[in-house]
Amino acid sequence: MLVAELIERKRDGEELSAAELDEFLAGYLSGDIAEYQMASFLMAVFFRGLSATELTALTRAIIGSGARLDFDDGGPPAVDKHSTGGVGDKVSLILAPLVAEAGLRVPMMSGRGLGHTGGTLDKLESIPGFQTRIDLEEFRAVLADVGCAMIGQTPEIAPLDGRLYALRDVSGTVQSIPLIASSIISKKVAEGISALVLDVKCGRGAFMQSREDAEALARVMVGLAAAEGLRATALLTAMDEPLGEAVGHSLEVREALDALADGGPADLREVTLALSAELLVSAGIADTTPAARRALEDILASGRAAQRFARLVERQGGDPGIVEDPSSLPSAPVQAVYEAPRSGRVARVDARRIGLTALELGAGRRRVEDSVDLAVGFIVETRVGAIVEGGEPLVAIHARDEAGARRAVERLQDAIQITDAAPDEGLERPLILGRITAD
User: Fold this and answer.
1) Which of 138, 279, 371, 397 is the most buried (most CB within 10 A)?
2) Using CA atoms, how far apart are residues 225 and 189, in angstroms rounded to an integer?
């Protein structure tokens, strides 16, 4: 194989055969193809895309590069959820124990935050003692005991994806629909699940800011999952303002605990129930979405989902006492308040700017290897459409020091826009923007 020629053909928009891609990817895994050559190939894909044949070949190569779990053992169906990333998105912490309590298995492999978006693993690691790095044998044992397990991607699962993602991150090719789709779906297929729900974020705080891009990504992922025998549904959800009120790892865990106790912000509850209901229907636990929602609401009201989360925390080395008393979660030493600079109506709560401001506080990472401050962040106490008075508290700031708190106050002036108190028609949009299935 002439590697340069293959890259040139992709650059010029030609379709490569499955056999050519298999050989190319195998050469990269073995070290025969250099990082700079793969980076050139990824950039060609970024601009030229992949055909259906190429996308399938790439996905299957990633799946075949490592182990593939199998839950076809007569037990409850195994399911999972994936979010394309947002600000304040702590849905996984609630969904996994909730769906497990409803009778499904949830082998959830999650990621860390990067840039302005948060990561499930970082949130879990704000729980004292919680271990996200366990091997596959222990992962299966936790799943058998609790019905759900939450860990990071292991070296055994889709190692080709790990290498490709690291290269995409430094080569400016992260936001490629076929590369995103193959990365996500390959890992979920390798997990051995039978049903998947995709939370495709859309708006200022999402990677896919336009409705068209979000819908295109959702359609590719759902179609690719179907081609691999995985039942998948995608919900397009709004990410113009943060989901819920809490932004920051330990703060988001506290809010997730409120939701598990049948409380929490209404928007967080709505998105969680919508995604969870899709899984119950896809897995055959419920006949209809309304029936699924009623069952899930009953579980939340009973406190059983919170109890299941406590079991998960304890089984993975954490302190289950945080479910009843979250005071042992990390807390920031400095508290400050951002107040409304004028009276009027809130016209914008920019999720991206709030996420970037949290990053500056220390809650985010610019590179995968960066450490994060698990205690800092915000409680955003206002929403788009709210009428506020000048001097009214809008955001509670949790910072490491006074200087960080002052910088956050300055940055929040750009994130929250207040206009004259005109009618709020058109300011708000639905949380659930669309639903994509294989049909």
Assistant:
1) 279
2) 8
Tally Cβ neighbours within 10 Å of residue 280. Answer: 27
Judge whether 168 counts as a catalytic residue: yes
Q: Has 123 been annotated as catalytic?
A: no
For the question of residue 82 being annotated catalytic, the response is yes
Q: Count CB atoms within 10 A of the CB of residue 292.
A: 24
Q: For residues 211 and 431, what is the distance between their CA atoms, to the nearest angstrom? A: 13
The dihedral built from the CA positions of residue 243, 244, 245 and 251, taken in this order, carries a sign that is negative
Q: Are 329 and 246 in contact (CB under 8 A)?
A: no
Tell me the per-residue pLDDT of 284-313, one tens digit each, with 9 for 90 and over. Answer: 999 999 999 999 999 999 999 999 999 999
Q: 72-90: string of b/e by CB count within 10 Å (b at 16+)?
A: eeeebbbbbbbbbbbbbbb
> Does residue 383 have an active-site annotation?
no
In angstroms, what CA-CA distances link 28 with 24, 36, 424?
6, 11, 54
pLDDT, tens digit, for every residue of 40-90? 999 999 999 999 999 999 999 999 999 999 998 889 999 999 999 899 999
398 noted as active-site residue? no
